[in-house]
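User: Structure please.
Assistant: Input sequence and predicted structure:
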Amino acid sequence: MAESLENLPPLREVIQTYDLGAKKSLGQNFLFDLNLTRKIARAANLGPNTHVIEIGPGPGGLTRALLEQDIIKLTAVERDQRCVNALNDYVKPVVGDKLEIIEGDALEIDPADITKAPRAIVANLPYNVATPLLIGWLQNATAYESMTLMFQKEVAMRITAEVGTKAYGRLSVLAQWLCECSRVFDVPASAFTPPPKITSSIVRLVPKVLGDDQPAIKTIEIVTGLAFGQRRKMLRQSLKSMVPDIQEFLKACGIEETLRADALSVDHYIKIAKAYEAGFNSSEMNF
């Protein structure tokens, strides 16, 4: 299989044949360096029984690297019909049923609905939809063994940020609550065609096995939205619309009312969310 894939035409030739100029409207930035795409595929640490989902394969640089891995199947979701045609014409005949190509918008497709477990997502995500896609997948994080994703470096730093840092925020809390998150390596702008104006980073997220007593994701989103929406203010101010007596509420949670949003750990936010759900009805929320 690997030998057959190596006989595929160079990616630049595929681009020319199928007129695959990157479209800004689709957030396309293509990776041609197969050594780099193989590095990404290896970083995903995929198992032999894994069904892999790739979002936005483009001309297929990362697709080739993933198909070289010992996996059961790769399902590629692509909006651009030009890229769908190219993959169907020059990759599909070589690998057969190991590759499935779905033409569609990843924002409207649940990867868990189109693949069997165990499954993993590996993707060079379009920058303009990367964060919404991640948040959507986190809603059902345990459906995946892992997610190995490329983001602009700024977003990657937010996902993996430590408490008390400038990058620490809503996305940090949500991602780190549900997954073990690590920034694996950076990818320079020069690796892409066309080169973006920013550096990119590979982030690997491995979902955690959490207890049944977890708060609703919606509650975490509300609490972090209030706290980080006024991150320079003390919690007694930023969270005061949550409950009638925020000072008493925070005291009951064992949290200092004078702290600010970026001083609270993920566990603190979970504690606040649980306490809120235990003592207040959603109809009493005042914001």
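The domain at 2-207 is CATH 3.40.50.150 (Rossmann fold).
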